[in-house]
Each structure stands twice: as structure tokens, then as C-alpha cells.
């Protein structure tokens, strides 16, 4: 049995998986040079000394490198999963055994266990919450008001979580500052676009081993995640249809060369459907009724409610597992609809999530966002704050440097020109 630090509480699937997990964490770390530089600085400066920190995130090799950096900075850190199916069990085991970080996460945990882990995280009485989807913060605000005085602030990783935080702020329920990591340029331009685009198709291919070339793929939503998914699907030879509710995003999709139509029209045309909207019931009962026999349905938005699975179950006479993470629903009409990953994040359910090189910048934002909150304790009013531009730019500079690229700098004459309103053409 792998030894664990004394008195460390945890709940993982199997500690004997730790050696494999450690190898994978170290492999991912090779692709995360920005976070490594931040970790090295944290180890010297200890910005989180005396800070209790809870991270609710997908327990992957990349998240492990973030957790290790936070602990190096002095944080009393605890990690839980942000999704019941996204945990990599060997990584969770290694974080406990090799790094002494308490983890409460198991791949395939049921909803009751997931919510129990949220409560365990709040039992840690965090000062800083790093959230992915806002479940920990929402539970705190609704059920643990007596702990609000402990909170310095929170950072949020996802579009879904930012929507919830802004709703809390609008309702007067947000009583502490929140840092919007999701909308940092070095996050959504790369994580949401290149990360989601590649990893979503990776998950679909691993779950089905299907050829994408020649298929018609319907992408619901043309935000940054939808842009990346549509771009990569076209790159694999698919014919791509985009559905949208935002007329500006729809025009952009048209000008990017994609067909655009309502889901009611796309439902009969698609071979594969991918939801990336952050909303609920984007694919509904009437859409299942219109789909081709054998249509595949997958979600890469944060929550599984993007696909109305209850409506599908109501229409079905039988459900069977045909491959790992692949369930075939036989409709009462006789045709079938195949759901991947139980409607949860397909890139993390059936694959390994975003590539490490992309998450390097996202988690650099998380680390620096948390440090920003600590440095500004008591100075920030309750609000949803963007990542400071100087931090965003520094992350991009470090990433470029690590990739071996350099860029130009403004000359003194150019700086004078850009700061002057008196010089014209």
C-alpha cells in the first residue's frame, strides 16, 4: 500500500494508482512552463501563507500542477472535483500520496457524493475559492452564510460560473470580490477555442472511433468554445452547421464559412450534435424526434442539462451501453439516438480534457488571480473583476518566451505618437 501523509483526510478511488499518476503529472508539467515559473516564485515568496484555499476543478494532470503550485505558495489547499465524471483517479491518488494535498474526487461518483464533497470543501472554511462552475460559491452563499466572513474572494474558470456570479451580484447575494478568469484573453482565446476544439473531438473519437470526415456536425453555440469546435470539426473534413441565438455570433459563423440555422432545422440534418452554450435544454424532445436514426449527441458545455435527457428517456423504450461512455437510446418510433458521456463534458468524460500547453495559461490566470485577491484583501468591494491587463499580458509574454518567440517593442517615437492627439495624418 502506498504510504500517505499522517492524518491527511481524503477520498479517492485507489492510492495504488499514485505512481502512474505522478508520471502523468510530471509529463503534463513539461508543457506548462508559465505555471512552473509562477510555482518557483510562489515557493520563494509564500503569498498564500496562512490562507485556507479550496479548489473545485476537473481533477486532471493540469489541475494537479496548479494545486502543487498553490501549495508551494504556502496555501492550506484542498481539492474536489467540479464534475462527477472528469476525475483522473491516478492523478487524485498521486496528489494525496506524493504531494500531501487532500483530494475528495472519484471518477463516476454519483451526485450525492459530489454534493457531499462540496460540503467537505466548505468544512475546510476557505478564505479563497477557486471554482469551476460556481457550485462551491453558490452552496456557500445559500447554505453557509455564517462562513461568508472568512472569504477573501473567489476566482472562476468558466462561462457558466461567470453567469451565475453576475446573477448573484445582481441579486445582492455576492458579498465578496470575484475574479473572472474565464474572460482573460490568455484564457478564453486559447483554452476555450483551441482546448475545447481539440479535446471535444478527441473525446468523441475515443468514445466512438467514428470517422468525422464527410459527417455533418451540428455545433450549438458560437462562442469561443463553439468557434474552436466548429473550426476543428471542419479541419477533420466534417460539414459543419452552427446554431445560435445571438445575431452577431450568427453573422460571424456565416462569414467564417459555416451554415447557420435554427436547431429545429438542423436536427434532421446532423449526424453528430455538440452543445457548447452554457444554457439548458438546447437539444429537446422535438429535436430527438427529428434526428436521423443513429445520430450521436455530445455535450462540451459545463453542465449536462444542455441536452434534455429526461425528454429522451421519456421517448425511449430501451437504453443500452454499446461502448464505454456510449449509450444507445431506442426510441418508441424504432430509431435510435446515441448519447456520449451521459451528456456530461465529453472531452473530460471520454478523454483527458484540454492539452497541458493550453491549460498552462488558464491555470497561470487562476494562480495569479488568487494571489491578486490575497494582495488586495479588504480593498475590493463585492463585484466580478476582470484579470488585470498587466497580469494577462505577462502570462502571454512568458508563454511566448517559453515557445521560443519574440515580438517587437514600440520605439520612443511610436510611444509618443500613440499618446498624442495632436499628430494626424
UniProtKB/TrEMBL annotation:
One of its GO terms (molecular function) is adenosylhomocysteinase activity. Binds 1 NAD(+) per subunit. Pathway: Amino-acid biosynthesis; L-homocysteine biosynthesis; L-homocysteine from S-adenosyl-L-homocysteine: step 1/1. Keywords: Cytoplasm, Hydrolase, NAD, One-carbon metabolism. Substrate binds at residues 60, 132, 157, 187, 191. Residues 192-353 form the S-adenosyl-L-homocysteine hydrolase NAD binding domain. InterPro entries: Adenosylhomocyst_ase-like_sf, Adenosylhomocysteinase-like, Ado_hCys_hydrolase_NAD-bd, NAD(P)-bd_dom_sf, S-Ado-L-homoCys_hydrolase_CS. It comes from the Bacteria. The keyword Hydrolase applies. Transmembrane segments: none annotated. GO terms for biological process: L-homocysteine biosynthetic process; one-carbon metabolic process; S-adenosylmethionine cycle. Pfam families: AdoHcyase, AdoHcyase_NAD. Its EC number is 3.13.2.1. The keyword NAD applies. GO terms for cellular component: cytosol. NAD(+) binds at residues 158-160, 192, 221-228, 244, 279, 300-302, 347, 354. It catalyses: S-adenosyl-L-homocysteine + H2O = L-homocysteine + adenosine. It is found in: Cytoplasm. Its cofactor is NAD(+). May play a key role in the regulation of the intracellular concentration of adenosylhomocysteine. Belongs to the adenosylhomocysteinase family. This is Adenosylhomocysteinase.
